[in-house]
Amino acid sequence: MSERLHKMLARAGLGSRREVERWIAQGWVTVNGRVARPGEQAGPEDEIAVQGRPVSIRAPEAQVVAYHKPEGEVTARKDPEGRPTVFEHLPKLRQGRWVSIGRLDLNTSGLLLFTTDGELAHRLMHPSGGVEREYAVRVLGAVEPGVLERLCQGVELEDGPARFDAIRDAGGSGANHWYHVLLREGRNREVRRLWNAEGITVSRLIRVRYGPVALGTGLRLGRWRALEPGEMQALYAAAGLAAPRRNAPRMARPPRTRRAPRK
């Protein structure tokens, strides 16, 4: 059965839908020796190659890991400035490659999810999915009640209106105060920009939950873990997809919590 080429390659773990669509637009993908066109369909009988290298379109067993990102790491496969990247610290795969579900900026720490299932990543990141992201935010100074009300009602940013779905006071002392905020979209630096729009400085930002998966207290900075079966079921349900039978990672190393190597 034929289907859209970019969807097929994403499901096979070669990249996210957006990445694959870019490869096709740049002429990197061929079908039966011919350069593929955007929107083209293909099937199991077709010979597909990316930059001249034949690829298997049989999807590997879906895997998802949670990673506790430290500050100072970039969410990219390579960094032109030579900074450490989150991908350097993930377990090696025998088949497919890791696709990040969302991003965190350089100065934000916390939960990052990675999967070999490009369709899962696409569904969880797409704005239409409305998947919750929860952040712990430390701000400097007192915050007036009116500020919190406006942040939930909506403020105007340079790329359009935005708001928090909820804000919960998490306490604090002195000049620092903590809040937990909920968002249902993943615009660039949106949490910081919302607070900054009200003249509030964010001194620390940690993502503590993505959809049904929480960071928790057991996963230390720079370490990863494979999701539990119940978490896999809940994550796929949040994406509107049928969950795989199990999350048994086929990795080059045992799927246990590991310390990330440091340069």
TrEMBL record:
Top EC class of this enzyme: isomerase
UniProt function note: Responsible for synthesis of pseudouridine from uracil-2605 in 23S ribosomal RNA.
Pfam families: PseudoU_synth_2, S4
Entry-linked PANTHER family: PSEUDOURIDINE SYNTHASE FAMILY PROTEIN-RELATED, RIBOSOMAL LARGE SUBUNIT PSEUDOURIDINE SYNTHASE B
Keywords: Isomerase, RNA-binding, rRNA processing
InterPro entries: PsdUridine_s_RsuA/RluB/E/F_cat (IPR042092), PsdUridine_synth_cat_dom_sf (IPR020103), PsdUridine_synth_RsuA/RluA (IPR006145), PsdUridine_synth_RsuA/RluB/E/F (IPR000748), PsdUridine_synth_RsuA/RluB_CS (IPR018496), RsuA_PseudoU_synthase (IPR050343), S4_RNA-bd (IPR002942), S4_RNA-bd_sf (IPR036986)
EC number: 5.4.99.-
Any Gene Ontology biological process: enzyme-directed rRNA pseudouridine synthesis
Domain RNA-binding S4: 3-61
Family of the protein in this entry: Belongs to the pseudouridine synthase RsuA family.
GO annotations of cellular component type: cytosol
Protein name: Pseudouridine synthase
GO MF term set: 23S rRNA pseudouridine(2605) synthase activity; RNA binding
Record's catalysed reaction(s): uridine(2605) in 23S rRNA = pseudouridine(2605) in 23S rRNA
NCBIfam families, per database record: PRK10700.1, pseudouridine synthase
